[in-house]
Every structure is written in structure tokens, then in C-alpha cells.
């Protein structure tokens, strides 16, 4: 079940951002993962940086290289910064779903989950005049990072075409999402049915937050050498380009992490490196999903 790339193209490249800003921290506080003394104006400003400073930098860089991107956007961020989200949309980027308040489906009851999806869809629709077709699961680290048993059906009922969160079964290839797996501890799992929802997997090993942010604690950024991060991204891209023709390579980024100066330099180096290959197709994830032949 391949994706059919445009003629002459060997590999798709998707640049994706999770526009979490401050929503992830406030959500973690709401579910008791952070105490009130751990979150106020100082830490809120980390998220504000991701919007106020990082987004204009990112828009400028993506414009410079003609790279369309996908922004997974919590509804509350769209409601707070509608002009910024409209600007991303006007620059040709995809606005995809990332919960309303960065809620993880696995921590919600049925009504809360449906409300979260609907509110998130409506917030995006008010800006783009279209329903989002892509979804990425917001993580409530370290408590919840999973789908609920209802999530796939909700996504399909709301007309989504893809989810970009699974970490397999492939890395540079898409597959159909399976719904209803049952995992046992004393016998083999029972596999659920494949449904018409595309799995565009992510690779945490090349995610910016893993390299930069999730260090000593939630609040103290890990300071990794950008040349080391570039080496990892480059080797993964090179492997995909050489060994997985017809597939895709995706970066998972966060404006509040990647928007810092030296990391913007790294992202630019990465785009320049990939651009040297003339048969690479830079695309949004919804464009990739449309190339899927069932
Ligand atoms: Zn997120």
C-alpha cells in the first residue's frame, strides 16, 4: 500500500511542528503533574517565546526555502493567537489538530474526548474555513501518551485522513491504522482491523525536544551540541534517501525549542543539505496522505 510520489521524486520530506507553546505546561498542571509553584509567568514565557519570536523566524526560513510545513495546533493556541495561525495558513502551511488544550486521549472520558476533538476542530475551522485532516496525540508527560479505545473511531467520524504519532511498524513508510488491538500478558496479542486512516509514523530519535529539551528535568533544557543533532538528522535522512525510495522522512519540531538562535541555524543547514537532492519532494503531511493509494 504505497504512497505514489510525484513523477521524478525519490523521497518525500515533511517538516512538522507541534505548536504547543504554553498549553502543554498548563495541561500538565491541570492534571496534577505540576504544582502551582512550578508554573507562573516565568515558565509561561517559555511558551510565549515559541509564538512571539519563534513563529516569525520559522515562517521566514520556510519561505526562504519554499518549504511547506504542517503545524499541529492545540485549539486554545488557535483561539489565543488567531492572527498568527492565519498567517501560517496564508503562507501555505497546514494547520492540523493537536487537542483543544493539549489533552491526551487516554486521560479523558468519552464526553471529554469528543468535546476536546470538536472544540479543537472548530477553533481551526474558524481560521482556515476547513476541517483539519491530520492529528498528532498530545502527550501528558509522563502520565499519558496513548490513544483511548475510542480515538480512531472519533477521528474517522470527524473526517480525518491521517494520524502522525505511531512509532512503527515502519519509519519511512506509511501504513493503515489498526483499531481494536488487544494485548495480553500470557498469550499473543489479538490484532484489530485495519481502517481507512493513514498512519504517518514519527521517529522520536530525530525529534527536537529529545535533543534539546527533555534533559535533566521538565524545566531545564538539555543543551546538546547542534553539530551532533545535525549529524543524527543527516544520517537518518541519508539512510532514508538511499534505502527507502518512495518513502518519506519527517522532522518533528517545536517552535519553543527550535526557534532559539543556534537551532534555527541548524534547521537552515538541514534544509540546505536536503535541498541539494533535486529529487526530494518537500510536502505537508496532508499532501503526503493524498498520495496514498489504498
Ligand atoms: Zn504537543
In short:
By secondary structure, this protein is an alpha/beta fold. The protein contains 11 helices and 9 strands. The mean pLDDT is 92.
What can you see in these coordinates?
The protein has eleven helices and nine strands. It has a single domain, classed as TIM Barrel (Alpha-Beta Barrel), CATH 3.20.20. The strands form two sheets. Strands 1, 2, 3, 8 and 9 form a five-stranded parallel sheet that branches. Strands 4-5-7-6 form a four-stranded mixed sheet. The termini are close together. The mean pLDDT is 92. α6 (151-157) links the parallel β4 and β5 (162-163). It has helices spanning 23-30, 41-65, 75-80, 82-90, 110-128, 151-157, 208-212, 226-243, 255-258, 261-275, 285-290, and strands spanning 11-18, 69-73, 94-97, 134-135, 162-163, 175-179, 193-199, 248-253, 280-283. α2 (41-65) packs parallel to α10 and α8 runs parallel beside α10 (261-275). The chain has 294 residues and is an alpha/beta fold. The structure holds zinc ion. Zinc ion is lined by residues 18, 20, 24, 98, 102, 138.
Amino acid at each position: 500500500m504505497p504512497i505514489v510520489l510525484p513523477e521524478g521524486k525519490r523521497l518525500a520530506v515533511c517538516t512538522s511542528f507541534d505548536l504547543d507553546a504554553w498549553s502543554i505546561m498548563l495541561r500538565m498542571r491541570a492534571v496534577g503533574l505540576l504544582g502551582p509553584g512550578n508554573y507562573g509567568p516565568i515558565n509561561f514565557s517559555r511558551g510565549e517565546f515559541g509564538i512571539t519570536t519563534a513563529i516569525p523566524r520559522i515562517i521566514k526560513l520556510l519561505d526562504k526555502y519554499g518549504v511547506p510545513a504542517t503545524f499541529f495546533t492545540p485549539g486554545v493556541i488557535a483561539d489565543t493567537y488567531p492572527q498568527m495561525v492565519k498567517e501560517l495558513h496564508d503562507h501555505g502551511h497546514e494547520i492540523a489538530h493537536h487537542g483543544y488544550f493539549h489533552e491526551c486521549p487516554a486521560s479523558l472520558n468519552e464526553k471529554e474526548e469528543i468535546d476536546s476533538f470538536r472544540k479543537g476542530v472548530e477553533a481551526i475551522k474558524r481560521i482556515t474555513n476547513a476541517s483539519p485532516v491530520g492529528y498528532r496525540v498530545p502527550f501528558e508527560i509522563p502520565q499519558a501518551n496513548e490513544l483511548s479505545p475510542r480515538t480512531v473511531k472519533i477521528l474517522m467520524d470527524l473526517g480525518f485522513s491521517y494520524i502522525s504519532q505511531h512509532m512503527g511498524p515502519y519509519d519511512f513508510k506509511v501504513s493503515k491504522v489498526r483499531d481494536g488491538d488487544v494485548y495480553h500478558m500470557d498469550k499473543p496479542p489479538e490484532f484489530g482491523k485495519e481502517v481507512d486512516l493513514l498512519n504517518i509514523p514519527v521517529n522520536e530519535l530525530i525529534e527536537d525536544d529529545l535533543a534539546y529539551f527533555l534533559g535533566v528535568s521538565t524545566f531545564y533544557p538539555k543543551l546538546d551540541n547542534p553539530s551532533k543533532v545535525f549529524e543524527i538528522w543527516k544520517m537518518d535522512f541519508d539512510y532514508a534517501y538511499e534505502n527507502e525510495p518512495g518513502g518519506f522522512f519527517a522532522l518533528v519540531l517545536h517552535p519553543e525549542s527550535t526557534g532559539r538562535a543556534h537551532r534555527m541555524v541548524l534547521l537552515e543547514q538541514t534544509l540546505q543539505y536536503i535541498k541539494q537532492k533535486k529529487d526530494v519532494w518537500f510536502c505537508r503531511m496532508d499532501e503526503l496522505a493524498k498520495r496514498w493509494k489504498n
